[in-house]
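fwd from M.: "can u put these together and see what the complex looks like"

so here's what she sent:
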Amino acid sequence: MNALTKKDFESNQDVRWCPGCGDYAILAQIQKVLPTLGIPREDFAFISGIGCSSRFPYYMETYGMHSIHGRAPAIATGLKVSRPELSVWVVTGDGDALAIGGNHFIHAMRRNIGLKIILLNNRIYGLTKGQYSPTSEFGKKTKTTPLGSIDRPFSPVSLALGAGATFVARSVDVEQEHLNGVLRRAAEHKGTAFVEIFQNCNIFNDGAYGFLTDKNVKAETRVLLEHGKPLLFGKDRNKGLRLRGLKPEVVTVGENGVTEADLLVHDERDPHGVVSYLLTQLDRPDFPVPLGVFRCVDAPSYEELNADLEQAARAAKGRGELAKLLNSGETWVIT
Amino acid sequence: MTAFDGVSESAQGEAGSDCGRARAAQALSRIRRVEELESVVIRFAGDSGDGMQLTGAEFSKSVAKAGHDFATHPDFPSEIRAPSGTLFGVSGYQIQYSSRPVFTSGDAPDVLVAMNPAALKVNLADLKPGGMIIANTGAFTESNLHKAGYASNPLEDGSLERYRLYRIDIGGLTAVALRDSGLSKKEVGRCKNYFALGLMLWLYSRPLEKEVDDIRRKFAHKPEIAEANVTALRAGYAYADATEMFPAAYQVRKADVRPGKYRSVTGNQALALAAVAASELSGLKLFLGSYPITPASDILHELAALKHFNVTTFQAEDEIAGICSAIGAAYGGVLGLTTTSGPGMALKTEALGLAVMLELPLVVVNVQRGGPSTGLPTKVEQSDLLQAVYGRNGECPVAVLAANSPADCFDATLEAFRIAVKYMTPVILLSDGGIANATEPWLIPDVASLPKVEVKFRTEPEGYKVYARDDNLARAWVRPGTPRMEHRVGGLEKDFLTGNVSHDPVNHQRMVEIRAAKVARIARDIPPTVIEGDADAELLVLGWGSTYGAIAQAREFARQQGKKVAQVHLRHLNPFPPDLGEVLGRYRRILVPEMNLGQLSRLVRSRYLVAPVELHKVQGKPFKVSEIYDKIVELC
Ligand SMILES: Cc1ncc(C[n+]2csc(CCOP(=O)(O)OP(=O)(O)O)c2C)c(N)n1
Ligand code: SF4
Ligand SMILES: [Mg+2]
């Protein structure tokens, strides 16, 4: 096999996202990561729902399905259980995964089925031209909330953890290198790997993540999660997160006797995940927004367990024989 | 045997002599009078907890082994454990067996076994005039009579004079028989259904020993319970024999059924067996994605226990995930199956449309129940036909088949898979709550004689166009993992050839038409329509699904009365058989009995411009033969 390149993963279809849409950068990163994974191209399948984000499979020169709104995790589950050897990716949006598809989304993670679920979160319904979504901020004015939204948003990464996800991460469309690293980690994870990507919809929700991407402020508004390292951030890397009991607080190293040793050290492998959950809840304006891998723990995947079950059944009963099955139970002969 | 010591109430049959414990000793040696019957209909009825389903099922197994044809109809409440003694907690099991072909579980029972007052109250109206009632007197307590709404005890107030009443303290006699078993009162109470079974086996001249073996096998993991049940069974049998309360035992002559090896199957079992058969015949894994719902859940239960075959079952988070996972599996190149009932079918609608667009094989089973909404979950109806044929957005053709009896579910399911893979299309298979749980003898087919389920995956990348079609208008099935054939599919309209997204107006019309043409083309495989009865009659009775038996029996009765009636029963509801229009045109009148408000009538009327006479029944119960018969007589 010749080494695969990014080009090998580009389909011949014109990409139809709006110029400037954050989806382009995400597509490019995925196309960059896949050839490096040592998996033959024909073993990838991309399944999506409906939304701008869900156009994704058309642009990938892999097997793919652009399905129906919210149902991609369910379709991908059937595919993965039937064909565990495939690398199955779900690309979804904040409406697709969290509103109409919320049920399938949580159950995929609860089962720990080996899917890579990539959520392009633009905090808006892009395809239907700008209604608020389950991640839109409280009070947000959109076409359907002219007086401001009274829905409380939830955090996809918190939800994923609550559903028992074994890999939960977050990145940003424009942070090429960071995104690349997170996607690679997700690709290598066994079981459900969930990645939320902050994505700018420059048409209906432009600048939603400006606070995170603006060069002038981003050092203050984000904290990068690195396993085994203290949670430090800020232009001068002297701000940090400290836990008081289970209460997080922002402190400045070198002030009031605070040293680096006082800071929370990130542990993505913590089996209980309480602190990981706490990190997923951090938000502006009181806290920096964490980016990186919140949680990565080992657990048997659904498809493995299922294969084990089927193998055990065959070991116990022998490979089923049709004639025997049809003739099983109580039979009688009429002459 | 001293099982009758201390019986408080002496059981008395109207025609029988009184109970005598002294007679017990001679019980087994007595020569009894045996009357021959043509056929018999028995209904076992009691509280949900009384075990009447088991008694009925065991009884039917016993008669099956004697070479009788039979049909059953279990009827249970939707409450799992309805309060005991109440009218809505009554569970029933009816069996008809005969020396002739049996088409239905029978209209009116000849015998009613009533385990409590509520069971008597609910079922009495159905009993034949002069029919036999075996009443479990011990349960006719003041409180139970009150719960059933009886002001006085019907066993004593003369209100049952028109029937042959046998009062037997089934519960009490069982307790006496099990006095020394060491079991708790509750456990002993659970054995009374075997006492009742013993009674009935004696009454209908069935041997005891096979049943004893059966019990020991069934309760192998709980030997004390097995022995208690055996004791109760023997006690019931001996009681019937010893007391001479029944004037005669009955025997139904052996039926003239096709020779071969038989087993008894429910519709849901037959369906599951056929799904495994489809997997074995095609060499493909079977994937069932399903969410539990009455009366379809048993299919999931059955297949979940068959993982030593090439079978994966997946209990999804809802019906949408059930069908979607099956679509994902089909995309992966395995046989996709999803099973449900009415409300679940409604949830699957959107995904069915996707499967139509994707042109992937998929079998969707709807075990219909009373609707709309939650409706009558445990009752039978066939009111989802129009939903199956039309119930989707867009021009969205799907093949629709129906099974007409429990055993027929096997053939219908194999046919569904055959069509699905040959035409790369979703197929809806309609069963119903009657067929699903009812049992019927099934002539076990030879595996070599089963129809082929042929599957060919395309692996040749040269010239591959995703929506290019073969002679059946089916596109090629390509498994992910096949090198150099990576492609995308989806719910957006496709280009006629490449399958790329296309908004071209002319292309859309072409695709809409070709999807319709493809499903219509399935008709090429449908054999000439079989006309049963008198093909040259003036009246044709047209049906589909589980009404087959009642229609066939009614037609048979009419024939015996010198009336000419033809019958056509449809397996294929979309597309219809190609000769159906011509066949319908031959008859002056067409009668369409349906358990809905005329859905098949509507379809044939609009398609063939015929004007059928409609006969509707939507009571959660199957047609009685007499209801169809009366209509036939009216029209002949
Ligand atoms: C069953 C159904 N309901 C509604 C729609 C309309 N619809 C399409 S995409 C969408 C929202 C998409 O939002 P999101 O998932 O955030 O994707 P984005 O376009 O923002 O990437 C809606 C409501 C649909 N296609 N199907
Ligand atoms: S509407 Fe927004 S999300 Fe959709 S393509 Fe345009 S910029 Fe991207
Ligand atoms: Mg969105």
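replying to her w this: The two ends of chain A are 63 Å apart (CA to CA).
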